[in-house]
Amino acid sequence: MHGTNSHSPKSQNPNRPQCVGLFGGVYSNYLALEALLEDAERRGVHRLYCLGDLGAFGPFPDRVCQILRETRIPIVQGNYDNSIGNGLADCQCGYTDPRDNYFAKLSYDYTFQHTSNDNKAWLQKLSPEIRIRLGPYRILLCHGSPRKMNEFLWETTTSDAFLNWLFEKYNTDIIVGTHTGLHWHRETSPGKHFINCGAIGRPPNDGQATVVYTIINAENAGLSDEASGVSDDRAKSENAGSDEKAKNACQLKVDFVRLGYDFERLAFEMASEGLPEEFIETIRTGWWTTCSEVLPAKERARGLY
Amino acid sequence: MSFDQILPYLAEAIQIGVKEFYFTGGEPFINPDLPKILEATLRIGPATVLTNATLFNAELVKELAAMRDSSKYSLELRVSIDGFSPETNDPIRGPGTFKRAMRGIKLLLDEGFLPIITAMRSWPIEQDEAQLYGFKNSLANVGYRYPRIKLLPSLRIGQEALRDRGYSEHDYITTSMMVGYDCSQLMCSNSRIVSTRGVHVCPILVDQPNSILGERISTARQAFELRHQACMTCYQYGALCSNASSAATSFEKTRLSRPRSI
């Protein structure tokens, strides 16, 4: 069904122009993942990266693992992957409310039981961080924050000062995460960006059933050799110095894509697997019904519950 | 603390990359400078205030709403009530405080705030469900449809030690208890408290002379020995009084938890 690269974007050539798709929080939503692969190909995305949390919430967790293993999309490990892979007792989502933990446990136990041992071993080995380069930008891909896999970096509780500290400490221009499941982008100073790429596993609590992933472009990025292409940056620390001139010429463009998929089918399959009605309501209505106690004041005020 | 006393600390917070700000007391709104302090804080980061909501009036709440709306950051209000009725709350918090707190919560709701309600557990833990039901009913009566209610363990110091009981002589943390323990869930591992006297290790120990670690935040980052009896409550429960975004998450703790059978 998903032969190698059958759904991956057309070009993985590191010397081609710069159009990178970023997604995370898959939460077993294999239907949204299939829709994303087609959508990214149609939009001419050159390379995709997954920021973790493959399981949770949805049905048949092995299906997402199968697609991602076949397409060989690079993946950052999320707290859910770390838990399932290491056989831990809970998902490490960081909830503090008993009701949230109740639903988190239902979801975790289902996912754990339905993930094959082979996929568990694969999840355990995923990398907690991937570094890439897009034109002049050094990019750090992580799940929560560079310092903590399950740290919540919400738009309204993350100060510019803290982000600037992270950019300096982790020697990067752009940090991308997904953990909170709500997409946002802020440029704290010229050329320094934080992006939450959203989640494709459940809608972003705004009453729409579509989900979100992110496409970033560095315009005119082919201006110099150093500024060309997306490439793995782990072995290139000597080139890690940022190029302010090139950044001025290569403005970063961040697009949040609202992705439609067959959510009624997902809802039906979740029901047939005995997953909680509260989860199904979220998939159908686009409003979070569980695990929302951790939302900060502003994000909370935008939701229904 | 006055506005002028706080300003240098806010400037330092930008320098060292502070993620968020939390105001507590006593009752912070007794301080006439607090609105001005919050406005300055919300220009540089998110702010949380722990209040008893008894000093709110329409004018003050409107002022808070205006500064909330003009900031990109969250202004989180946590309201302490210790019982869901005057009969259960007022013996702990003072005569008339329940009624005034509910009036304050109503004013907040009218301006679009969704305060987090915190209650110190002054009942046996088995009664949590019944108590939560009572809180939800009382809050529904002032129009709070989906309230966030956090039950906190009691810190058996000060008035609470007199009301219930203090710590026993055996309530202290030993070296062996720290082996494999996830310190990131302790507030003292990621936060510092500023008062007119200096920078303290945590809000619980501010009255202890040795809680002052320095004059500036940047010179008060050293580790603190968990030698006080109240440290036992944080050790057992983590910093439930802080926000989930305050890095008080449990990654290392759960990584060390008992593996399940596969």
CATH architecture of chain A: 4-Layer Sandwich
The CATH homologous superfamily of chain A is named: Metallo-dependent phosphatases
Q: How many structural domains of chain B?
A: 2
Q: What is the oligomer described by this structure?
A: heterodimer
Radius of gyration of chain B: 19 Å
Strand order of the largest sheet of chain B: 1-2-3-4-5
Number of E-type strands of chain B: 8
Strand content of chain B: 5-15%
- The CATH level-2 architecture of the largest domain in chain B is identified as Alpha-Beta Barrel
User: What summary fits the major beta sheet of chain A?
Assistant: 6 strands, mixed
Instruction: Tell me the domain tally of chain A.
Output: 1
**Count of helical stretches of chain B:** 9
In N-to-C order, the SSE pattern of chain B is HEHEHEHHEHEHEEEHH
Main sheet attributes: strand count, strand direction, barrel closure of chain B: 5 strands, parallel
Question: What is the CATH top level name of the largest domain in chain B?
Answer: Alpha Beta
Tally of helical runs of chain A: 10
CATH-defined fold name of chain A: Purple Acid Phosphatase, chain A, domain 2
Q: What order do the strands of the largest sheet of chain A run in, or round the barrel if closed?
A: 6-7-5-4-3-9
Helix content bin of chain B: 25-40%
Gross geometry of chain B: globular
Report the span from N to C terminus of chain A. Answer: 39 Å
Your description of this structure?
The complex is a heterodimer of chains A (305) and B (262). Chain A is an alpha/beta fold. Chain A has a single domain, classed as Purple Acid Phosphatase, chain A, domain 2. In chain A, the strands form 2 sheets. In chain A, strands 6-7-5-4-3-9 form a 6-stranded mixed sheet, covered by helices on one side. A 4-stranded mixed sheet of chain A has the order 2-1-8-10. The N and C termini of chain A lie far apart (39 Å). Chain B has 2 domains: 152 residues, Alpha-Beta Barrel (TIM Barrel), CATH 3.20.20; 98 residues, no CATH class. The C terminus of chain B is likely disordered. The N and C termini of chain B lie far apart (55 Å). In chain B, helix 1 runs parallel beside helix 2 and helix 2 runs parallel beside helix 3. The longest helix of chain B has 14 residues. Chain B is of the alpha/beta class and 262 residues long. In chain B, the strands form 2 sheets. In chain B, strands 1-2-3-4-5 form a 5-stranded parallel sheet, with helices on one face. A 3-stranded antiparallel sheet of chain B has the order 6-7-8, with no helix packed on it. Classes of the chains: A alpha/beta (305), B alpha/beta (262).
